[in-house]
Design goal:
- This protein has three helices and ten strands, in the order E-E-E-E-H-E-H-E-E-E-E-E-H.
- The longest helix has 15 residues.
- A hairpin with a 5-residue loop joins strand 7 and strand 8.
- 17% of the residues lie in helices and 27% in strands.
- The protein has one domain: Carbon-nitrogen hydrolase (Nitrilase/N-carbamoyl-D-aminoacid amidohydrolase).
- It is an alpha+beta fold and 172 residues long.
Length: 172
C-alpha cells in the first residue's frame, strides 16, 4: 500500500490537482510512512501558473527552482513548528527573490500530540522579497492578499535574471 504526503489544489468547478511531497522529513520519520513524490505540479488557474509544494520542500531551492518562469506563484502548505519560524520566514523570502515570483506560505497553528508548538506565520511575499501580508501569530484567521500578475510580468521583463540561470537536470 503506497501513501504520499499530498497537497491538493481544488478549483471551484471541482477539478482536482495534487502534488506528492518530494522531500520527506527524515527527523519526523516520514519515510517510514510515505513514499516521496517525483513530479512538480504547476496549475494554470485564472491566468496564473501556480506551483504547489509541501512543507520541507521549502528547504530545497533546486526543487523549488522556477525554470523559464514556469510559475508565477509558489504556494507552500506546511507544518513548520515555532522553533523553526526564523528559517520558515527567511526561506520563503529567499524563494521569492531567487525565483522572481510571488510566494505564499500557509502554516498551521496550535500544538500537536508530541507537544510541538506551531505559531502560524502564514505569509505572502512579493517578487523582491517584501512581505505583502502575514498572519498574527497563534491566531486562527484568513489572510487576504491581492497579487498583481501584470506587475510581476513587468518586473521580469525589466530584470530578466531567469535568462542567466544555469541549466542542470535533477535525478529522480
Amino acid at each position: 500500500n503506497v501513501c504520499f504526503n499530498r497537497g491538493f489544489f481544488i478549483e471551484p468547478d471541482g477539478s482536482e490537482h495534487y502534488y506528492d511531497k518530494r522531500h520527506l522529513f527524515r527527523m519526523g520519520e516520514e519515510g517510514r510512512h510515505f513514499v516521496s513524490g517525483t513530479e512538480k505540479l504547476v496549475v494554470n488557474y485564472r491566468g496564473w501558473n501556480i506551483c504547489l509544494l509541501v512543507c520541507y520542500d521549502l528547504r530545497f531551492p533546486v526543487w523549488c527552482r522556477n525554470v523559464g518562469n514556469e510559475y508565477d506563484l509558489l504556494l507552500f502548505v506546511a507544518n513548520w513548528p515555532q522553533s523553526r519560524s526564523y528559517a520558515w520566514r527567511n526561506l520563503l523570502i529567499a524563494r521569492a527573490i531567487e525565483n522572481a515570483a510571488y510566494v505564499c506560505g500557509v502554516n498551521r497553528i496550535g500544538q500537536d500530540e508530541t507537544s510541538m508548538v506551531y505559531r502560524g506565520d502564514t505569509m505572502a511575499i512579493g517578487v523582491k522579497g517584501e512581505v505583502i501580508a502575514e498572519s498574527e501569530p497563534f491566531v486562527p484567521q484568513i489572510v487576504n492578499v491581492e497579487l498583481d500578475l501584470s506587475k510581476l510580468k513587468s518586473f521580469r521583463e525589466k530584470f530578466p535574471v531567469w535568462k542567466d540561470a544555469d541549466e542542470f537536470v535533477l535525478k529522480k
